[in-house]
Amino acid sequence: MNARLIALATVLDVVVLMGLGLGLFFAPLTLVWAFDDGFSTDLVASWGIAVDGWMLGHGVPLHFALSPELADSLALGTLAREFVVDVALLGVALLTLLWGYRIARREGARRYPLLTWVLAVGSMVGLSFLLVFSLPEQIVEFDLLDALVRPALFLAAGMALATWVGGDAAGKKVVSSLLPPALSGILRTGMSAGVASVASVLGVAAVVVAGLLVAGFGTVIGLYESLQPSAWGIVTVSMAQLAFLPTVIVWAVMWMVGPGFSLGLGALISPLGTQLQSVPALPLLGIVPSSVPEFAVLVMVIPVTLAFVGGLASRSRLVGDQRGGLWRDMHETPFFAQPAIHMAGAAVVAGAFTAGVGALLAGLTGGAMGPGRFASVGADPAQIALWWGVEVFVGVLLGLLSGGLAKSAGEAAR
User: What is the Cα–Cα distance from 256 to 271, expressed in whole angstroms?
Assistant: First the structure.
């Protein structure tokens, strides 16, 4: 492929991506407009809601300013007429992230990386600018800079991720060429163990959420009925919750890590103790249990155990088939070249990576979901970073060290 075709394909990729993300909201709203409203309402208002949902999906804070009449009809006080919603609908952001990864993994992107990056990110910024100025007058406002930058950041993050995946990844080659072999091995081992730990905990959380959906099916259906939507309204609510589902999975991760998360001021959900009050009127939140058994504290063993397995599986990246156990003769091997020191360094890298990812996820899924006590929802990024980082550090370190001990025991037996 020549540069022109690659440029055209990149721009079209971004256009399709934005069409899919906006269609997630606009398509069901159009069905409501056609079949429930009988074409009597303004479809432009539905377009505005779709754009707002797409922006919120990328973490763009939405500022609501309700009229006194609307606020009174919703039983909101005078102080609650203006509020912010900034809890990201991570389903949309995940779509953008994966699409960016797909763009950067194409053969054409490898041949012309700078062209692909500039056109992909530039197209996202330009189309976001057009979306902002296509909006009708509405009660929702957001910062222009946030609207331009945040969606492009998710796309760029996916493209950056592609440069680190695979044996021939450009990022790995650069690190290997710039750093000494020992330090490069520590970084690669720590990152591999950290990525494995994060991915496995997210996978377990997804299974937990699926199980809770099955167990709490009756409650979820009851919440659907309390909203009294039409058939097409059910489709609309379900599509919105599909975008919200990854956010709930991240909250499940925060619960397993230990600090838990809140669903409003004074409503904490944690294995260490749960105090649940009224929750936002989302059927998906019907899976949140009102109380947890005392043995639920054992769930915090899961992140440590998965990190242990990740460390055990990553040991060969650090020491390969070298013999000599965890500690070698100081006359032959300097202190900072000892396998145990390298393992500790890799565990620190894994813990630091996990702490950063945890803080980022907590920041994206925490914030405000509405007025009043729902001005504080989600987990505290600092607590999640500290707890999850320490858990992964301990688990990875034990995994690496136990692998070394098992190898030493096997050699002694022979």
Answer: 7
What residue type is assigned to position 54 of the chain? W
* H helix or E strand, kind and range, residue 247: helix 231-257
319 with 342: CB under 8 angstroms? yes
Q: Give yes or no for residue 141 having a pLDDT over 80.
A: yes
Q: Which domain holds residue 193?
A: 179-414
**Residue where a domain stops, chosen among 177, 193, 224:** 177
**Residue 340, phi then psi, degrees to nearest 5:** -65, -35
Is the separation of the CB atoms in 168 and 273 below 8 Å?
no
- Asked whether residue 24 falls in the same domain as residue 152, the answer is yes
User: Could you tell me if 6 and 84 lie in one domain?
Assistant: yes
Residues 141 and 209 in one domain: no
Question: What strand order describes the sheet that includes 377-378?
Answer: 273-275, 268-270, 261-263, 377-378
The verdict on 131 and 196 lying in the same domain is: no
Residues 6+ apart with CB under 8 A from 295: none
Are both 101 and 162 inside the same structural domain? yes
Return the SS3 of 327. coil
Which ranges in 32-80 belong to alpha helices (H)? Answer: 43-57, 68-73
Cα-to-chain-centroid distance, residue 377: 16
What are the E-state strand segments in 46-116? 62-65, 82-85
Cα–Cα distance for residue pair 183/169, rounded to 1 Å: 18
Any idea which of 174-178, 303-307, 331-335, 375-379 has the lowest mean pLDDT? Answer: 331-335
Residues 6+ apart with CB under 8 A from 59: 86, 88, 93, 150, 364
pTM of the model: 0.88
Q: Which residue has the higher pLDDT, 385 or 1?
A: 385
pLDDT tens digits for range 267-323: 888 888 777 766 766 788 888 877 777 778 889 999 999 999 998 888 776 765 555
| Number of structural domains the chain divides into | 2
User: 83 in the Ramachandran plot: left (φ > 0), alpha (ψ -120 to 50) or beta?
Assistant: beta
Quote the Cα angle for 269-91-264, to 5°.
25
* Residue in this structure with the two tokens 């991506």, named with its chain if needed: 17
**408 in the Ramachandran plot: left (φ > 0), alpha (ψ -120 to 50) or beta?**
alpha
The answer on 224 and 136 residing in a single domain is: no
